[in-house]
Write a structure and sequence with these properties.
Length: about 110
């Protein structure tokens, strides 16, 4: 009986990234449902379409410049997924680009 050759380290890393992305998408949806937080139509569609693309193609973006090699989600998709997960937990959204609210003037 012939055995399959072991997968290359790159292939194993790619498969692990794919599983991690699918688990994160499932976790975000489950936590939103469990907490009773209603996701917007766009957020639900985003989770569905990204998980479908990861299952079908192994990653959710077509342009290799949008994400790191071997990763299943682009950097923006990862950011949106974190925002959805934070919304499901009831946390306030983080400010983008590290900007803080302006301080009131001293009187």
């Amino acid at each position: 009986m012939k055995r399959k050759p072991p997968p290359s380290p790159f292939e194993a890393q790619r498969k692990a990234a794919q599983r991690a992305a699918l688990n994160a998408l499932r976790r975000a949806r489950r936590s939103a449902e469990k907490a009773g937080v209603s996701l917007s139509e766009w957020e639900g569609e985003f989770l569905d379409s990204v998980s479908e693309r990861v299952k079908t193609h192994g990653r959710a973006f077509g342009d290799p410049e949008l994400g790191a090699p071997g990763q299943a989600l682009s950097s923006m998709q990862g950011r949106k997924l974190k925002e959805i997960a934070a919304k499901a937990k009831g946390e306030e959204p983080k400010r983008r680009w590290g900007r803080k609210a302006p301080r009131p003037p001293d009187t």
